[in-house]
Specification:
The chain is α/β, with parallel strands linked by helices. It is built from eight helices and twelve strands. The chain has a single domain, classed as Protocatechuate 4,5-dioxygenase, Chain B (3-Layer(aba) Sandwich), CATH 3.40.830. Strands 2, 3, 4, 7, 8, 9, 10, 11 and 12 form a nine-stranded mixed beta sheet that branches. A three-stranded mixed beta sheet has the order 1-5-6, with no helix packed on it. α6 packs across α8.
């Protein structure tokens, strides 16, 4: 807790997954976003899928996703960020009790109104422990700050072993203009480069088809939140676009043992690409 009484979740992976110096971090994220292809869609994004590894490896793919939020700065007021539980065994979904998540760039407000809306759902608990060491949500925050600015608030949701329908219910409760969903997930883990490309291509096909039943736990560390988003997307009849597939070998990692990354955009059917 800070001296002003605001309860803040401290950073867990600054200095390891991304720079802990605010100026260096801001410059890095801005440079990644500047290199990303610009959005060609007229419709506001409803959801994104982005990776959460060290920025050295997954940053270009994450930036490809977040570049689609930049045109909507001022229109997006809330981002629901769902990530897997890497460290804490969890059944259901965990919301934090804190008022903000710290970042080297400054604190990001937790949306208390959104938390109150979904805190009573059967699959939801309010518990800070699953958030304490978790990097999947934390690594999204610098991109959100640099694309959407400080007016945006977040609802961080750690998703453990949870039926996709339960995740979709949470998303539908928060579905409103001005709200965007981000699912933070990497794809295949520790295959060689050729095997990873084959596995991730199959995973991407399932995502594009909004077919969560075709996914298996080894396809993505964010298996549970991703399947929930696909269930929600099918219910909403959202269009899914594949923005990029890559692996850690593309940014200097060992090609014999890679991690896969994917960026996907979910939007309304009226969001046609421009020429």
């Amino acid at each position: 807790m800070r001296g002003d009484g605001v309860r803040v979740r401290p950073v867990a992976v600054a200095g390891r997954f991304y720079p802990d110096d605010p100026d260096v971090l801001a410059a890095l994220v801005d440079a990644l976003l500047a290199k990303a292809p610009p959005s060609r869609h007229r419709a506001r994004p409803v959801a994104l899928v982005a990776p959460h590894a060290a920025f050295r490896f997954s940053g270009p793919v994450a930036a490809t996703a977040y570049a689609h939020l930049s045109p909507w700065r001022g229109d997006v007021a809330r981002v629901v960020v769902l990530g897997p539980a890497h460290f804490t065994p969890l059944r259901g979904m965990a919301l934090p009790t804190v008022d903000a998540f710290e970042t080297p760039l400054g604190p990001v407000a937790v949306d208390a109104d959104a938390r109150a809306v979904v805190a009573g759902l059967p699959a939801v608990v309010v518990d800070d422990e699953p958030h304490a060491r978790e990097h999947a949500i934390e690594t999204q925050l610098p991109f959100l700050i640099r694309t959407l600015g400080w007016a945006v608030s977040v609802l961080p949701v750690v998703v453990g072993d949870t039926p996709p329908t339960a995740v979709a219910t949470l998303l539908s409760e928060l579905d409103a203009p001005g709200t965007v969903v981000v699912v933070s997930t990497d794809l295949s883990h520790y295959l060689n480069r050729a095997q990873a490309r084959e596995r991730d291509t199959r995973t991407a096909a399932a995502v594009l088809a909004r077919n969560g039943e075709a996914l298996r736990p080894g396809d993505a560390c964010g298996f549970h939140p991703l399947r929930g988003l696909l269930c929600h997307a099918a219910d909403r009849d959202l269009v899914v676009d594949q923005l990029q597939l890559a692996t850690s070998a593309d940014t200097g990692g060992d090609p014999r043992r890679v991690v896969g990354y994917g960026a996907f955009l979910f939007h309304e059917a009226t969001g046609e690409a421009t020429e």
